[in-house]
TrEMBL record:
A GO MF label: monooxygenase activity
One of the Pfam families matching this protein, by short name: Bac_luciferase
Assigned keywords, A-Z: Flavoprotein, FMN, Monooxygenase, Oxidoreductase
Protein name: F420-dependent methylene-tetrahydromethanopterin reductase
Amino acid sequence: MTDRPLKQVHLAAHFPGVNNTTVWSDPASGSHIEFDSFRHLAQTAERGKFDFFFLAEGLRLRETKGRIHDLDVVGRPESITVLNALAAVTERIGLAATVNATFNEPYELARRFASLDHLSGGRAAWNVVTSSDAFTGENFRRGGYLDRADRYTRAAESVQLAREFWDAGEEPVRHRGPQFEVEGRLSLPRPPQGHPVVIQAGDSAEGREFAAATADVVFSRHSDFAAGRAFHADVKGRLAGYGRKPDELKIMPAATFVLGDTDADAAERAAEVRRAQVSPQTAIAFLEQVWGVDLADHDPDGPLPVVDPDPDSALVQGRVRIPDPVGTAERWRALAAEKGLSSRELVIEVTGRQSFIGSPATVAERIDHFVQQDAADGFILVPHLTPGGLDEFVDRVVPLLQERGVFRADYTGPTLRDHLGLPLPERR
């Protein structure tokens, strides 16, 4: 045990964007395009005093065998457009947009996020993502020009140059680097936050180093306790090399949840949610993502495919291919044999788990435990229903975190940096 003060839990709300998180068959499932859905979820998160509202984004609809899998979310309005509108109907919650550094110029990124920061009174955040995917690049004049090894080089210089524009305001910027040569002016004053908050989600060695050097928040995929502690220690341990302190970077894994009046009730509801998330069609689409072969005639209620995966397949476009598909298939076959699982049951087992399942008291205790034990600094919550899926969490779990003294009763400052406990950057 240590005598350090209790860490404060950070919470954000993710509007589901891709994959099979959303339970479309539920009567409460609403539109992912109508503005009222975004408004409801953002205002619910603000009522719960969350740090920020988060939008993912894809630049091209993902395909399997040239077709769109319509049980995934496949399209919606552009993120910064949505957030600019939300700035008018919210007051304090941060507004975070995912925007690709590969297919956007640093000047336009700096200008768009500075505009959002001014319009919202200092609540803007940029989730920096990269792409070396030629399939996505076909929507742009560059195509798939960027080698995978260069994607973080471009992203790092994009952030650096955006920050130069933010620091300069209306003063001239002269930048010479390996990716960009720019002379120009931002045409806006310096943003209220100095620099809008930078979020990063890469998990490779390059991604972790990029986060340590550049990011304010890491959107981590490590919601398992042991994996979360290892990731937290690894990334925080890299900060000193860049002259940064551990509390200057917040690590917030994505997390799902299912609540019930009792733990048993929640477990029963979670099983229903998992089965609804992984329809027979979704199970086949996921297997094709691993196997790389056409499985249209495969029985989802039968055993796993007997054929070996094709590691060089281009059957699936726009999705990140699961590493080591042959080894993954072998591990899945062993798991299916051990537990007697069909193909669909196997996919449910490996993809459909909720991070937090239980009564409100159980979920509040587990979230607090993760944060106090340095497995995370907080969580970006992804509800399985839009737009009302966060309501129950805000009404039943947030008050218990507040009673524990680990979550704010109200906002203490106007900006997202205030919510996250991040200092205003010095003007360089």
